[in-house]
Amino acid sequence: MEDLVETLTRGNTAEVKVLLASIALALGVYQLTVIAVGYGRLRVPFLAPPPALAAHRAVGDTIALLLLCTGIMCLSVYGFEDERAVHAYAGTALLSVLALKVIVVRRDFGLGRFLPLLGGTVFALLALTWATSAGEFLA
Amino acid sequence: MSRQLLGSLLAAAVIVVVVVVVVTAKFGSTSAAERESLETRQEQRLEAEEERREDAEDRREDER
């Protein structure tokens, strides 16, 4: 797996990982704005709640894919490093909470009212994971 | 509805493009390809310098 990642990224694993994580974080900020419109907390003349919710779902799927790819790359090349424990735990928690959110979105299980909390947690964990790796890399 | 949805997705695509441009610009010469070419150039420069030094030494020895 490590060889595949190295080949796909042409030896620039860290750079590609930072880029994907940064895109995910920027889209995460956009998601917060879009869902605020979707829930009617933010009213803008050019976007109604139904298309905002649809866009939130589509962009969310993209973010989930980006984070999955980043997580696989990170684990296969770097593994769990002791000196990057916060990043490793935050990343693991991020993917776990994201998986839970996707399940709740698709199946509900009566947990739909917790979606804003789950979304906020996903964003907070994404910001922490980014800050403890990509943020340091770009600083 | 579909026009608004399309606009929202377009805005997301613009964000992606902006992030790609900003982050890759920040990487600068840290990419593996650029690092490699920089190392190759440095090696070539060192080799050329060494050759020049050896030639100069040979010339000095011939003069003696």
In angstroms, what separates the terminal alpha carbons of chain A?
29 Å
What's the helix count of chain A?
6
> What best-fitting shape of chain A do the alpha-carbon axes yield?
elongated
The total number of structural domains of chain B is 2
Order of helices and strands of chain A: HHHHHH
What percent strand of chain B? under 5%
Q: Could you state the order of secondary-structure elements of chain B as H and E?
A: HH
Oligomer: heterodimer
Rg for CA atoms of chain A:
16 Å
Key features?
heterodimer; A: 139 residues; mainly alpha; 6 helices; elongated; B: 64 residues; 2 helices; 0% strand; rod-shaped
In brief:
With 139 residues, chain A is an all-alpha fold. Chain A has six helices and no strands. Chain A has helices at residues 2-8, 13-38, 49-77, 85-107, 115-131, 134-138.
Overview of the molecule:
- The complex is a heterodimer of chains A (139) and B (64).
- With 139 residues, chain A is mainly alpha-helical.
- Chain A is 77% helix and 0% strand.
- Chain A is built from six helices and no strands.
- The mean pLDDT of chain A is 90.
- Chain B is an all-alpha fold.
- Chain B has two helices and no strands.
- The longest helix of chain B has 32 residues.
- The model of chain B has no long low-confidence stretch (mean pLDDT 85).
- Classes of the chains: A mainly alpha (139), B mainly alpha (64).
- At the A-B interface, helix 2 and helix 3 of A face helix 1 of B.
